[in-house]
Amino acid sequence: MTKTMTIAVLGATGMVGSRAVREAAARGHRVLAVSRKPTSDDPDVTPVAVDLSDAHALGEALTDPPGPGAPDAVVLTVRTQPVDREFLVGTTRTVLEIAARRGIRVLVVGGAGALRSPEDDELLVADNPRYVPAVLRPVATAGVAQLRACQESAHADWVYLSPPGLLEPGDRTGRYRRGTDTMLTAADGRSWISAEDLAVAALDELESPGPDRHLTVVHREAD
Ligand SMILES: NC(=O)c1ccc[n+]([C@@H]2O[C@H](COP(=O)([O-])OP(=O)(O)OC[C@H]3O[C@@H](n4cnc5c(N)ncnc54)[C@H](OP(=O)(O)O)[C@@H]3O)[C@@H](O)[C@H]2O)c1
């Protein structure tokens, strides 16, 4: 049986974060839903209002939060529009530093840009115009910088989950195919997954950590 955890979802109101909150709560975990204006009607989901650019407030949210107490695990799934690389990397470093001190597992939902191209494993997706047009390159390279921040961290217990090329709200099938650091394609030829199934993969990884620090998932058809 899976141990019940307290999981802090940073970016709880977002496309991925809201699904991660729902998936975690449905599995019986206690959830700290962290964003600037979180709300919740679920007694197992405690809203924690924090602006993540305030490192002190972030520290308090992870070490002395209201409700169920300090988290066993953190899902970092934040995004700004337009992309703010400094904020993304800075927040990631702060989370990893706190997590290292407190023994907290960290799962970062990052970008597909940090993956290797399927046709050329020396070429990152972020640098491949076949997948990333010039207008999206700043977002893609910020995701690469976020992965580098993880790799440079002294904390050992982190995993960076790269979505496939396309990530959208959809159905929760509970199925996905898992890979490591190369972008995957589904049976229909597209690199995609629903945000619901990405949340399933994130929670599976937190509950049963695999050997890989960098992993990706893609939609899987029913057998
Ligand atoms: N194919 C791909 O590679 C792909 C596609 C989509 C997303 N992603 C990645 O998936 C992750 C999640 O993306 P998403 O689409 O779910 O993002 P989203 O819907 O835009 O949500 C972003 C979340 O970040 C929170 N946030 C932003 N700034 C904050 C701040 N200063 N303090 C506190 N919270 C803040 C927002 O909360 P508030 O505004 O409520 O505070 C919100 O909950 C990102 O890493 C994104 O790059 C990857």
Model description:
It holds the Pfam family NAD_binding_10. This is NAD(P)-binding domain-containing protein. GO terms for molecular function: oxidoreductase activity, acting on the CH-NH group of donors, NAD or NADP as acceptor. The chain is 30% helix and 23% strand. It has one domain: Rossmann fold, CATH 3.40.50. The longest helix is centred in the middle third of the chain and has 18 residues, at 85-102. It has five helices and twelve strands. β1, α1 and β2 form a beta-alpha-beta unit. The protein has 223 residues and is an alpha/beta fold. The chain has an eight-stranded mixed β-sheet, with helices on both faces. A two-stranded antiparallel ribbon has the order 6-7. A two-stranded parallel ribbon has the order 9-11. Residues 11-17, 35-37, 51-53, 77-80, 109-112, 143, 163, 165-167 line the site of NADP nicotinamide-adenine-dinucleotide phosphate.
